Amino acid sequence: MGCHLCEVHCLTEHSQSRHVVRAHKRERPRALARVRVEEALPLTLAIQCHQCDEPMCVFACLTGAMQKDPETGIVTSDSERCMGCWTCIMVCPFGALRRDTARGVVAKCDLCAHLVTPACVAHCPNEALTLVDVTP
Amino acid sequence: MKSYLASRFVVLRDQERCIQCRVCVRQCGYDVHACDQEAGDVYSSDDRCVGCHRCVVFCPTQALSVRENPLSYRANANWRPEAIEDVLRQAETGGVLLTGMGNDKPYRIYWDHLVLNASQVTNPSIDPLREPMELTTFLGAKPEAVTLDPETGALGTQMPPQVPVDVPILFSAMSFGSISLPAQESLARAAAEAGTLFNTGEGGLHRSLYPFAGNAIVQVASGRFGVDPEYLQAGRMVEIKIGQGAKPGIGGHLPGEKVSAEVAATRMIPIGTDALSPAPHHDIYSIEDLRQLIYALKEATQYSKPVGVKIAAVHNVAAIASGIVRAGADYIAIDGLRGSTGAAPKVMRDHVGIPIELALAAVDTRLRQEGIRHCVSLIAAGGIRNSADVLKAIALGADAVYIATAALVALGCRVCQMCYAGKCSWGIATQNPYLTRRINPAIGARRLANLLRGWSHEIQEMLGGMGINALESLRGNRLHLRAVGLSDSEMRVLGVRPAGE
Amino acid sequence: MSDHHLPSSELDQEIDAHGVYYRDLNARIRQAVERRPCQRLVLRHVCGQRYIGTGLRSRVRIEIHGTPGNDLGAFMDGPTIVVHGNAQDGSGNTMNSGEIIVHGRAGDITGYAMRGGRIFVRDGVGYRAGIHMKEYGERRPVLVIGGTAQPFLGEYMAGGVVLLLGLNLQASEPHRTVHVGTGMHGGVIYVRGAIEDWQLGREVGRAELEEEDWVLVAQLVHDFAGHFGGDPEAILSAPFVKLFPLYLRPYGNLYAY
Amino acid sequence: MRGTSTRNNPYGDGKVIDACSIFGVMDVTGRPFSGDRAIAAIACMHERGNGLGGGFAVYGCYPDFPDWYALHVMYMEYDVREHVEGYIGGHFQLHLAEPIPTRHVRTISDPPQLWRYFVSTTDHPLAGEEPDDYVVQQVMRINTRFRNAFVFSSGKNMGVFKGVGYPEELAEFYCLDEYRGYIWTAHGRFPTNTPGWWGGAHPFSILDWTVVHNGEISSYGTNRRYLESFGYHCTMETDTEVVAYAVDLLVRRHRLPIEAAASVLSAPLWSHIDRDSSPRSTLLRALRQVYPSLLLNGPFTVIIAHAGEMIGLTDRIRLRPLTAARRGPLVYLSSEESAIRLVDPDLDEVWTPLGGEPIMTRVLAPGEGLPGPQAAVRPLGGGTR
Amino acid sequence: MTRYLIIGNSSGGVGAAEAIREIDRRGPLTIVSEEPYPAYSRPLIARYLAGETSIERMAYRRPEFYHQNDIGLVLGQRLVRLDLESRHTELDDGRLLPYDRLLLAVGGAPIVPPVEGLHEHEFFTFATLDDARRLAARVHSGQRAVVVGGGLIGLSVTEALVKLGVHVTIVELAPQILGRALDAAAASMVLRAVEEAGVRVLTSRTVVRVLGGASGADVRAVELDDGTALPCDLLIIAIGVRPRTEAMAGTAIAVQRGIIVDRHMATSCPDVYACGDVAEAYDFVAGGNRVTPIWPNAYLGGRIAGRNMAGVDTVYSGGTAMNSLHAFGLSIMSAGTVDPPPGEPAYETLLRDERAKGTYRKIILLGGRVVGMIFAGEVDRAGIVFGLMRNGTPVDAFAERLLADDLGLLSLPAELWQQMVRA
User: What is the pLDDT at residue D193?
Assistant: First the structure.
């Protein structure tokens, strides 16, 4: 419905403090939301990593930073190894990844692996976002 | 023209907490909030605020609050601010003052002067959690007596069509058009889940809601929008809408801008044309004409479903109800002074009609005096706010109640009374596709079903307290009501004794 | 379809309605239409029975001899009803599709809220004929009146076509109806003969017929003559005027927000 | 004002609301005929009523006593008759008193005692110059003073026969097959309550004015208070009553022609009056200005009858139906055409009048020819057809 | 059990190994690498040179990768001979490795042009970690370097050298830098950034002679074709790579510029596959085989080869030239045909040139489909366009929208994005 609260809470969850006000107003560089709400009003669509089965970003990654966990299916980028070439961004057909220019790495949805429910899902007021396990 | 009106609300933004996420900007249907891209801050235009709290609720940092504008007028018991502002508004526009929702004037709310009974010592109260407790209500005309087949001893009476509801609470008519499709779908799904009925209003039944037609009361109103044989066949009951509590005696008017493609398809009118519902049905100018339409609908549905009539509570409502019974209606819905609407002239909403409590009591009493109470079910509407109101209505004589405002409040409505504007930030009273998406019917249905479940539990508790385990034992049982702070004449109309007597 | 009698066949049925209570009559009609294949149903000695054809969804042709009661063909979806006599009030009420052909006059609110189908009335109609007619998608209802109409013709009209022929007027005798098209916000009314501005609702404009109007009117006049006889060319040779809604939203400025 | 009003209206409604089927038939030659047609026709419109009231007015039914007022009285209690008869005896010259003949009808339950008294006022010491005024006064007095008695017919050579039941049942009950009249009006009632009160049925009458009515008069409160200032007691609290009194006031007391009275009751719209440049518009304007309180607003069709006259009238925007028809000397008025067709299939003409346009039929003067097509008298307001 | 042999331990080889192991956990799998390191990220060698990363952090796969996947790793050995008949390969040390399925992922070798005096002096190429280590050992702040070649490798080494305080001059034969990846306009954006970083760029110039210093192999200067001499302390040759096809000489494996493979990444010989910089594989833009020495293409080609080697019939959708350049603070992505051949009316160019604001977008259409793109500036959603290009999606109806700032999935027709989201 286009409230963008998923972005707010994603950013918060990926911040140092994980406090919504601090994360947005105090922390520098600011954390980045890994979900992005597109608007073509009246339509809105929350775009985030689809954790593809054939993840082009993983295939294209020049450094091996981008990996898909064979157990969880979650695709994550190891920021230690990411060199910020953003080839992954170029090959993502969803446009779901974004540059973290301040840190020189890619920022992508990790499904809040440390949480039971990703922050975006937990805070979506309209249940537009749900976590679907498609692991075969 | 320069407006002389001051803003009604003040929007307070705690800049310390505001993270410029612009959730408020996007959530407000009235464009109260805006973002200054250059300065990077968010600011508010208070004069547009309707006090719906959408931004307040959705602000992730609780940075927002909305207050009534503390602007003071010189005290005047006669020229109160509302009177002054109404005059100003009309001086600026020359128009009819429009408003939404129900009467907000301080007419006496009789529910709040009626108290319920409970058992002590002489009879036991019942524990509804463990003991049986029946709320099922059958809507439809009942024969005067049961006859047995002399041969077989089996039932001889041909029963008129009966529609059971698991809770005596139905969703009142709200058309697709006046409310959004997701809002109506929420009602439909909740009705199906809770075992009750929703009412299409005069807007037809959207294709996507046909799966819920078994829980639909399909309304036939003067504009006949969306009415065709399929629609009539689909519904569980058919309702002829004569009037509504918020605007007795006048028709409806869905402005063309709300007639979207989907609304148009459902009403079966071209996109963007005004949907005018005339004040009267032009085939009903008299009571025998009502009978004619009732039987036309029964013919069209082969006498398979109850055909009811909804009227506004007006002065001679008892006599009118009597006539409606005699015209062959299977149920009568009476909508009181505090009944709501998507749009009504303010002057009608606030000054026409009588409270539902008095109307209901009068009708029930009259029909009993005439010996025709069994011929109809009575549905009371207009101002039911909680389960106690439901139970009091039943004790006054209703078979069931209609709720609408309470249902919309469950979906987020703050009763801001701006439904007619079509900008409802809660996605309820709007056809703007950006706004209507705010209601996820799955969530809406859950909220509504929760409400009904909660009320239903409370009703069972209260019934148990009275030592009653079947709702029908309370129907019209005014001995379980007592009045507090009412005049003799009010108690006479209500048929209720004063507390302590 | 002209009103010639179809050859009698086993698909024809006949009911003598004399003294039959309307509910029984309509039950028999439904039975005839639904349970047995019936293309043509002749009702004789009809006198005031209501709801004939009401809610019926079928392609059957019902021929009525006598005076049918109110709400003839209400909510009807498909049948053709031919009345050999006058029709009373409420014919074609909220009708969806089908045809009603009245060899006589019809009463008040003929075609109320009709959404589709066609009504042809040989003579005049009562008050508020064509009130709140509407159209939707492919459905464009048509009401053709051979005689004159009483006031409030096409009130609230939201769609469809009304053709008023005034065939019973003397040459140059004006129509007497008033409040024509009051509240009209859709559809079109064609009037043959003289009608003055004061006879029209405030929301109604008048115009000359254009080519496409003539095509439609000519078609309807031919159909009318097919049903009732008469010379279509003679009918068409008189002056016509086209009435249309001036505003799609007649009450747009009524409210203060 | 006790007794009848609470009987008719035991629930104290602002007014009793009812609606109905109406029918009237008249032979303009004044030749009496049986009630078969009226009874069959009103029965044909059975669906428009609900069995809670029906009645007939028959003109010319007492040819043997043409100059005596025929008072039809219903007694709801046995005792009261003695008192009322004493009163009648004391205020009129009583020529004949007899029970109204009735027969048992299964569906007609618990009828009141029904009596009729043929009276005159001639030489009565209390009657003044205007015997009709005197009769009206006495009828009003009986109806308000005696709790359980009610005069429901008081004209000369005419009678009202009404009660609770379907009209065809009441015809049977009142043995109407034994009467003949040159006007028959009939009513099938659909009231919104069931007082079980015979006086509440139509026709309503005062003297020989009778009214049968279909619809509801929304201006009732205004009309009633106006009429009360002229001494009419609206004992019934039904809207139909005011029609009878209004006609009595306008035609009998104010001596207006019935056409003018029709233009008061069903006044033309100001826009119509303003467009009329003839002298007639001055009259219409004055009628509306003087009698605004007698404008009958709301949906109605009435058939008003009077010695030698039958008038059909609808409201200004014709919210209730009325069909008129004629065959030879017979003129019909009916809620539905089918009712006329039932009793007279081959009519010379059938039409529906415009709103506010009265259809007036009079007994022909000697030598006068039959009326031509649609020979209704136009309303003064210049209604359009 | 099938025995798999992979020659080459970069992205193609790893991609194949991973694909094989997704299907076949048991068949013996051996990877042979000429280099002494487990797979590392070749593109990171510039970072290494700049001192921004370490050999450990450059690992392309975690150290446990080979063990966990039961892969035999042979390091420091070059393929010297192929025996297709007996299905053996011979390595430097004379070892014979048998195979049932063979993948040739031996990559490319830097092209070294015939320049007078070049081989007499010390010069550097920049393709391997060892190249970088060699250079790193020689570089220090304040030196002057000449980088021959203004392509991606040239720029990446330049950036590293600049970070190390080296004064760099780029000599590019073509009239513009990055001529293969970018059009002139986009290249000018890079040029500006490069020059702002203090780098001198000489285009339409070439080195004709290397001039030595007093002591042995040291470079003193290079002489350009216009006769000018550029004094320098370091000379880096970065003008591209060529497929290393020498070991295939004499075999039946069909070779043109590179080893020709079909859509299954199979060579002309049974059970022999090839991928990566050595292969001439399907290019979906060209519609035919081309050498596209691009890391992601190598991985993907390897992956396809691996699947087919393990018996799962899989078709290579193709690769094309594509680059995500992030250098000197600029982000530029390009792919496919970035400069349509002049005078070809079949091509349509959609252009949004706001270079002043740092934005440049160009989309080349052919037959209503995207065949080339350049995104500079905001590039986060360039992948959507690349996806359309790769899928050959007809974009006529909405192509203009792809240039908009708010480019997103919702810029696509509803049926398209709905299908994507559902999948």
Answer: 62
